[in-house]
Amino acid sequence: MKRILAILVEDRPGVLTRVSGLFSRRGYNIQNIAVGRTVEPGVSRMTVTLDADRVTVEQIVKQLNKLVNILKVSDLTEEPSVGRELMLLKVKAEPEKRSGIQQMVSTFRAKIIDVSPDSMIVEVTGDETKLQAFMLVMQEFGIKEIAATGNIALLRGARTTRETKGG
Amino acid sequence: MKMNGAQMVLACLEAEGVEVVFGYPGGAVLTLYDEIFKKGLPHILTRHEQGAAHAADGYARASGKTGVVIATSGPGATNLVTGLATAYMDSIPLVAITGQVARPAIGTDAFQEADITGITLPITKHNYLLTELRELPRIFKEAFYIAGTGRKGPVLIDLPKDLQAEAGDFLYPKKVEMPTYRPTYEGHSGQINKAAAAIHKAKKPLLYSGGGVISSGAHTELLEFSRCVRIPVTTTLTGLGSIPHTYDYYLGMPGMHGTFAANHALNAADLIIAVGARFDDRVTSRLDSFAVGAQVIHIDIDPAEIGKNVAAAIPIVGDVKMVLQELIKILKPGDTEAWCEQVKAWKKERPIRFAQSADAPLKPQYVISELYRLAGGDTIITTDVGQHQMWAAQYYALDKPRTFISSGGLGTMGFGFPAAIGAQMAFPKRTVICVSGDGSFQMNLQELATASCHKLPVKVAIINNQYLGMVRQWQEFFYGGRYSQTCLAGSPDFVKLAEAYGVLGLRASTAADVQAVIETALRTSGPVVMDFQVDPQENVLPMVAPNTPIVEMIGGDAL
């Protein structure tokens, strides 16, 4: 099943390599990984989405915790959490199709952020199912290119990842 | 106090109490070696960096201290790779210091540049590329701390050439502050209570202990544990020596070449207490038929080992010595009498054995048992990897921890001889014997020069069967006897080879020669190479074929 891990790491050179290297050499498949800053200086947050069963994820969490630069690993899958992904789509947009695109953009609460004579760039955020649905709709017009961030997630409520159990 | 980077390294090593380093100089460590020269730091110059890494490993395994190895950048550093992987797999504390090209040249494919931190990422516990001189003291402090605590392992520090010559202030930190690295030592008391209750209830409990017992110095506690509740013990290859072989309830080694008693006890047990062991595939063989009737208590300092291969009903994360001490306080003996009688009967009726008749070809097992008879129990044995390793594990009786040094996890041929050099450095007065094979010995025989030049009295016993024996055995059993590339014809005359290095060479081709050869070797004050020309057809038995249950033993009834 799909699992989401939040990993707090020391912001040091090579940390991403250590994490991604661990996944590949132990044969775990990452669906996507997003890295960014946190409120703490010197600490970065990685959100890893992967497909694995519970036992495998437990082993992954334990192995990740052994990496010296890792501060905290938390499996958000079974916790109430919100996850979002940001996607930019370059869509074919001949003048006669623009109003159709605009309609879909507003239905999905997306945004047009660039327009050229025959294409547009659309920005959309949401969870995986929303982005899938939006892509399906945009395919009608013709998607030229996509850039996506990968999933990022936070726990619902006041509790932070630091305050979760384990590692 | 102002110092250059190289002087700082020496100051760090001194602060860590390092008594000897193993290494090989080169362009990117010239400044460091200049300081070694000036300070007179004891240094063993090997003839290959791999030898230096294994020697530092052997030193660490024999002494319990952290081994230190130094190599230059590029090929020097990459030659450490096998040594680091060997230490990593067996959780041996090492600090490797490698030279790196000067900081401005990093990333330019400069002469003798290799990304050694990248290369060693999966085979070190941690590694560092030093880019700021002011970080040097902290990083050395952390490196020794990480290597020697928790589940021990190798740590590498990559040291750019220009940084070694740069001057700065030096202050060695007293304490390590690493919020991201905090091993758990104390076991959870609730789990310990649960374990004690399960042990009390069990009718067929078994202690299965590994290298963690030796690493944490818990051999006394392990024996006491076993004695006070009468639970038989089996020890893995890396745990050999943690229980005296004479102990009544000691069953020997389990697994692929384990004893009948150990394998059957694992199979029939209702409770397995795993102590610093990791259910390696050479022990468990087929996991779905391994110890199916047993509940598992797993005590280990590394939480990731618990539940990795075998599910644990009662996991206890902690230092095995501390956990065993807590457990012993509350243990109550259960009713294990019938079980103990059963395993003792297995042990008595089905020992491992061999036959050597006077006119038969020399048997390798006979050589090992004679080595034990003549060299005794205080001797440190190192081994290479293959048939001779298994015979040494089966027939060299051990009484003390840190007397059996062998590459268990990685199975590194070429490990034994340089490891023996390291062990001899740790204990100059004790007898150190490297049991090797004709294949393995040729992987690092250049270290004969090291032993000769440092007058290290290591005794090498080559179990010479003219084959890569273990591979040949598998070809005989599982590949229709097609001996593809396993015949080692063309090997040198090992006696003459030894002599070429100024080392005494001796040979035994029959059982009658063996005693005199060993006695001469043990009497000799310098290094000796003994060439034992044994029966090339001999196999390691019993054997569990890969992916079969551990009680399906080939040759369990041999003779």
- The CATH architecture of the largest domain in chain B would be 3-Layer(aba) Sandwich
Structural class designation of chain B: alpha/beta
Determine the N-to-C terminus distance of chain B.
71 Å
According to CATH, the fold-level topology of the largest domain in chain A is Alpha-Beta Plaits
Tally of helical segments of chain B: 23
Radius of gyration of chain B: 24 Å
Please write the string of helix (H) and strand (E) elements of chain A.
EHEEHEEHEEHEE
**Spans of chain A with pLDDT under 50 lasting ≥5 residues?**
none
Rounded mean pLDDT of chain A is 93
**Helicity range of chain B:** 25-40%
Low-pLDDT segments, ≥5 res of chain B: none
CATH architecture of the largest domain in chain A: 2-Layer Sandwich
How would you characterize the overall build of this protein?
The complex is a heterodimer of chains A (167) and B (559). Chain A is built from four helices and nine strands, in the order βαββαββαββαββ. By secondary structure, chain A is an alpha+beta fold. Chain A has two domains: 2-78, ACT domain (Alpha-Beta Plaits, 2-Layer Sandwich), CATH 3.30.70.260; 82-152, 2-Layer Sandwich (Alpha-Beta Plaits), CATH 3.30.70. In chain A, strands 5, 6, 7, 8 and 9 form a five-stranded antiparallel beta sheet that branches. A four-stranded antiparallel beta sheet of chain A has the order 2-3-1-4, with helices on one face. Chain A starts with a strand and ends in a 12-residue tail after the last strand. Chain B is of the alpha/beta class. Chain B folds into three domains: 2-169, Rossmann fold (3-Layer(aba) Sandwich), CATH 3.40.50; 189-349, Rossmann fold; 364-540, Rossmann fold, CATH 3.40.50. Chain B is built from 23 helices and 21 strands. In chain B, helix 9 (189-201) crosses helix 14 (320-330). Chain A binds chain B through residues 10, 13-14, 17-18, 21-22, 25, 55, 58-59, 62-63, 65-66, 68-71, and chain B through 117-118, 121-122, 125-126, 129, 146, 151, 178-181, 302-304, 307-308.
